[in-house]
Amino acid sequence: MRFGPLDWAIAVTSLVATVWIGLRARRLVGRIEDYLVANRGMGTYVGTASLVSTEIGIITYMYQAQFGFLAGFSAFIVGLITIAVCFAVGRTGFVITPLREMQVMTVPEYLERRYGRRVRVLAGLMMAFGGSLNLGIFPIIEARYLTITAGIPPRFVAWTMAALLLIALLYTALGGMLSLIVTNYLQYVLLAGGMLIVTAACLSRIGWSGMTGAVREHLHGRGFDPFADLGVGPAFILWQVLLWVAFMTVWQSAAMRAFSARDAATGRRVFRLTSVLFLGRAVIPMAWGIAALALFFARAAPLASPAGEAPAAEMARLDAELSARFKPLLDEGRLEVLLPRVDRLETLAQADGSEPQAQRARALREEIGLVAMPWMVATLIPGGWRGLVMAGMLAASVSTYAGYFLGWSAVISQDVVSPLLGRELSERGKLRLTRATIVALTAFIMVWSLVYEVPGPAYFYLQVTANLFMAPTLLTIVLGLYWRRASALGAVTCFVLGAAASLAYLVPGAGLSVGAAGNLSWGLAFLGLVLGSLLRPGHAPTPARAETA
Amino acid sequence: MSWLTLWAIVFYAAVASFALVSALVAVFGYGEVRELFQDLAAKNRGGRPPLPPA
Lengths: 549, 54
Fold this sequence. Notes:
Chain A is mainly α. Chain A contains 23 helices and no strands.
């Protein structure tokens, strides 16, 4: 269970190597184009490594494992949607090819060409806002993983996260996309190794039959059929398809890989290869979550209740026990004590029709689900191997910070600050502005992660914050490319209405479900774009052809 | 086909394809990084402006 000196040596060496390589790449950066899109020289395999390592962080493992822990195998449907959408984008070049051919460096840059500067700035603001909120909870969730698996005392966790952020900040600010590409290659190798080690441990110690048995026994009839399960219905699946289409095409850190590719064909190949890895990105950590469910339920002792105890009295007793002992037991990793109690409380509350108690039990289960996978890793992985797994996790974490820092700071500096200045900056000025933005973004993230409390599962928070701008951005780009009448008024209405629905989910007490918020965001954004454009039509000649000429 | 069979196929296919594509990335990615850096070094030697100070 202890994280030994050998484990520390492996983990620290991997970080030092990453920084050293990242800093060496800095020498070759000469222009803003080198800095943001690596001189558009990225090949297929290194592009795949870069895209995947940016989109896999410790937080990805945490929320995917939590989703698997809560929803069982039904969660896998997200992996199938991901591979289908990513492969389709890679096959057709939908949106990414026209944008790559226009040689833009950020997504809102196209919006200025199509709708004017005001739309670019608005889109940039929305992206910067949603992207920063999205990134803002990464450190606090990842800190929990590090506390559990490396045994870092809680009082040092904030410092550890600060150190990781600073490492990413250092080489990203100096070397930009070029540093990212080379470090992402090393980081990808480490994270892939780490993922395969944890998966092998799950299969050898718990086994597929142990995992299926746990879902069958402990999810009360849920966990296999995504359509029948609560929360994974047709509305959820529709929203996921739309969200993934947007993610693959207009999410800045993903789109930047297409912009950095040698040519449009390379960009499409990157997405086709990535589709396979994105299936693993979803399904593998979800399976870890299911393995954690199996591990801790298998260790649990049967609950003993006093003879003749009425259900209401039992519910009250369990509630009192959990109120007093939940937090300390969770911090000690005694999930085998907590799980049967939370499970029983939920069963009793549902039978009694007590919705507040059932909600409380579900919230406690969500909390357990978030830390179950790290506790399982700390339990199952032997010394030495644990260092390798940690190196993989740290690589995943740092590469994600670096990729997102560059992505969102590019949007803030190029699409918000620079246009508002009203004059063209020099190469040196653009680089300085982007670097300063990265520093400011890092500071914001550290503060936000300390003050904000996430409503519901992290998975949904992340997707809803992304949806703040993804629906409007994708719609304005697609209709901008293929509908002549799409206008600036339509685009502005689209952004405002699309963001409003997602914001309603984030406001505590608004009571909007995640699926409803997601679909509402798409519906309102579409309505806004169409109505605004019909009210005051645009006069683009032949949009797609004119822009790519 | 039952849901359980489908999920077993999806899981093992995901792990196997992840391992295979990762191996391809590890092998061929190294050459691409070298090529990108050689390209940029050659362009820099050709008289492009140096990196502004941080």
